[in-house]
Amino acid sequence: MNKETQLLIDKGEMLPLMEEFYTIQGEGYYKGTAAYFIRIGGCDVGCHWCDVKESWNANLHPPTETSKIVENAKKYSDTIVVTGGEPLTWDMTALTSQLKNEGLQVHIETSGAYKLTGTWDWICLSPKKMKRPTQEVYDSADELKVIIYNKDDFRFAEEQAAKVNANCILYMQPEWSKRDTVVPEIVDYVMKNPKWKVSLQTHKYLNIP
Question: Could you say which residues bind [4Fe-4S] cluster here (predicted)?
């Protein structure tokens, strides 16, 4: 990679674009609604159950001009979801400012492990044990989505819920490969602790991206 490209990436004027697609949001508060997803490559959080491990290595995904990403996105939807990988690995200021200039609603799905950059209409925080969120993301999160893989994740969920702001909506979501085991446990937990809601990966049930 040449120095000029690296400089543009450092500024967020180019981003390692893995994929972009128009689909139905499958998870959390906005599940069931149409949205255009922008998946940015690069993540060192390293969840062993991640279902998009091919996003981890940013070098596998072509540096793409932010303006081109925005130009394409605005053709499809009023709601844009920036996901990864871990999008906050990169400076999101340029991307979100251009999307907002087009009058679009801009959401992010993040582990919160890095500095919060960009302007967001909705922040979905999905914290991971390996690399905890920054306080700024805890304070700004609109929804907390904790992935339940084993019993210790219920403890982790409560630990994380204690750190987010009072208006943050709390979700527990089964890890897909463990859903048959953990869904009954999540249902039982949420019924006993109704501050929580259940989130499912409905896009996988619908067999869409």
Answer: 43, 47, 50
